[in-house]
Target: L-threonine 3-dehydrogenase, mitochondrial
Amino acid sequence: MPMIRAFSKVAKDLFRTKGCGCEPLIVSVRSITFSPRQVTTDASFHSVSFSETDHPKVLITGGLGQLGVGLAKLLRKRFGKNNVILSDIRKPSSDVYHSGPFIYSDILDYKNLREIVVNNRITWLVHYSALLSAVGEANVSLARDVNITGLHNILDISAEHGLRLFVPSTIGAFGPTSPRNPTPDLCIQRPRTIYGVSKVHAELMGEYYHHRYGLDFRCLRYPGIISADSQPGGGTTDYAVQIFHDAVKSGKFVCNLRPDTRLPMMFIDDCLRATLEVLEAPAESLSMRTYNINAMSFTPEELTKEVQKQLPDLQVTYEIDPVRQAIADSWPMNFDDHNARKDWGWKHDYDLPELVQTMFNFIGSESRLAHAN
Ligand code: AKB
Model:
């Protein structure tokens, strides 16, 4: 958003603050006409608004995680192959490398990020780089760097260049004192993991930049995401992906959560479609900037029963991981997403039976392919 618009929005907000009888807030004009990093040039000079191009030019950070490749595929179908750039600090597989633009980007390197945004005339940024809940607890300082310091770079670059910014949040942004069944959009958020703390921080900072600088920040709180052709890395909900692979490979699965642990979950196609839909939603339809999205909610026991309808011989045993179990016990059991449904028409397609069927269709065809080769 050009900074001049950001300025008038801030000025309006200040006016409103005075009018509501609170203490007048004194902010110097200089501090609000410049981007958060106080770049020496006028920030609006860099910004390329979406209306200048037919399609947005999208950068996806952390692109080689569970969701990036799938999102790139969906966005490329919609906006054209060359308008969506996947990025990561890891080397892509040959398939990913040949499927569309891929670039090295390190979110901890501000200059590298800025160069990518400028050289590629980026207009939308999807920020997927993050350490998940269980792996974050095993490496708190790295999680703090990536999830918090990295986010600051992303926010500043986005404000400076007028980008539309999507940052996912999670069921993990809630904690033991939040209402758990169901968990509404607005309620107490006191997570007990560095992952959760960093995601509450992201929600609040994004919303702050929206109000302070006019940043077009959009955020969805994802449930545990279940995907067939990409693996989650180090989350608490990972068991719900692993069970399918182990069931097909060995007929046995060792679950690291108690059989009655209920968590909100979603099939990846629903998650990616929700992301595209909220990115495309007209600004005036968004009554908030951070939304819960929901699809289904199940326990390991319920998932096992559904999987056994396809593979009756599957044997599931339980070896509880105390770190993951404590995390899961502090998270929502059911998510209330009525605001997303009301504001921008969110509707999930997959419930548990369709999810299980689709996972087996995919994994079955993959393993038939592997045997044929
Ligand atoms: C995790 O388990 O850490 C993630 C999440 C629910 O955000 N999958």
Residues 1-33, 39-52 have pLDDT under 50 and may be disordered. Residues 132-133, 170-172, 195, 224, 232, 235-237 surround 2-amino-3-ketobutyric acid (CB under 6 Å). The first helix runs from residue 3 to 19.
